[in-house]
Amino acid sequence: MDNEGVKLKKQKSEWREWLESAVIAIVLALFIKLFIFEFVLVEGSSMNPTLNDGDRLVVAKVQYYFQEPDVNEIIILHYSQGVEFVKRVVGVGGDTVEIKDSVLYVNGSAVEETYTDGSTYADYPASTVPEGMYFVLGDNRDNSRDSRFADVGFIKKDDIVGKVFLRIYPFDRLGRIE
């Protein structure tokens, strides 16, 4: 009878260990997704040619807890309830941003944009980005809802999910996003 009692106790112990391991794994996965990084799917063409519809990306969420987003970084941001955008930061607090004759100017200097494909939509009047805010644009300016439009406007840091740093699909374009 002692052997049966030991076997039963061992089975309960193994079951409990498995359950504890599963709970720890779930909690750890949730922590990582909420605070460290997450995977996102690009839907749409607003960041062509840099990012394409169907690209799968890894977003670093923890980075902006310790530093501010910088110009040229590609970020994920909350646009509205349940909708997130992927855009490029082109201006930070204190910068004056303007688009004239399809050329982006920041603080009066023309920005060489090797990542855009063609025109940059219509002119945009010189506007100074408020401190603590960001001006974002899509690389495909003719097909992007971004800071040029009143419903998007300047972006608060609290609306930034994180920095895009890696494309993991399609495999032929796998690599870091600079």
Walk me through the structure:
This is Signal peptidase I. It catalyses: Cleavage of hydrophobic, N-terminal signal or leader sequences from secreted and periplasmic proteins. The chain crosses the membrane at residues 21-42. Its main location: membrane. By secondary structure, the chain is of the alpha+beta class. The chain has helices at residues 2-36, 63-66; strands spanning 37-41, 56-60, 74-80, 83-92, 96-100, 103-106, 109-110, 124-128, 133-137, 155-156, 160-169, 175-176. The chain has two domains: 1-36; 61-163, Ribbon (Umud Fragment, subunit A). It is built from two helices and twelve strands. Strands 1, 2, 3, 4, 9, 10, 11 and 12 form an eight-stranded antiparallel sheet that branches. The longest helix is centred in the first third of the chain and has 35 residues, at 2-36. The chain is elongated and about 85 Å long. The chain starts with a helix and ends with a strand.
Summarize the structure.
The protein is α+β, with helices and mostly antiparallel strands and 178 residues long. It is 22% helix and 35% strand.
